[in-house]
Design goal:
182 residues; alpha+beta; five-stranded antiparallel β-sheet; two-stranded antiparallel sheet; 2 helices
Length: 182
Amino acid sequence: MSHMIKGKTTLSVEDKEIVKESLEQCWGEEYEIQENVTIRGQMCDYGVIRKPRPVKGHTKTGRYVEGVYGQQVMGLQKNSEGTYDIVSYNAAYGSSGDQAIIDDTMDKVNTVFAAKKAQKELAKHGIDVEISGDAVDSEIEIDGNVEKTKMVKVTIAGGVKSSGGSGRNLSGDSGNLGGGMN
């Protein structure tokens, strides 16, 4: 039977602005990010809702529907640990696919969030970082095992100058973290 699912994320409530920006970047124009919204009967800080669109026809149960409808995709709800829980829906019977739905829903958001968080932290130390484009599918090899992952392109701007045409000879300062990040 279909059911609501709930899972943990690593997104911090402390960084709620970055969380919202990451959701907006990942879900695109067909969706809207709403604040303080009920998703699957749960009050959430953020909800991802497919924008309303015209619907006309019969449901799987044979009921005729006509109108303009949106669709709740997922929500993020504060927990006592200072992070967000994801609230979503599994249309399948049983709970065997719940974790896969959570992972698929959050992979891109987690990657964009991590890049934006790093950008914010490095900016505190005067290092300008640009994030180019959305998170894309990629692979990484660790100890001979290839793992699927998501990737964003991050460019650290300023301070590094190329003194040769091949780009192999670098001079200048790549930035100073002033004791590292907190």
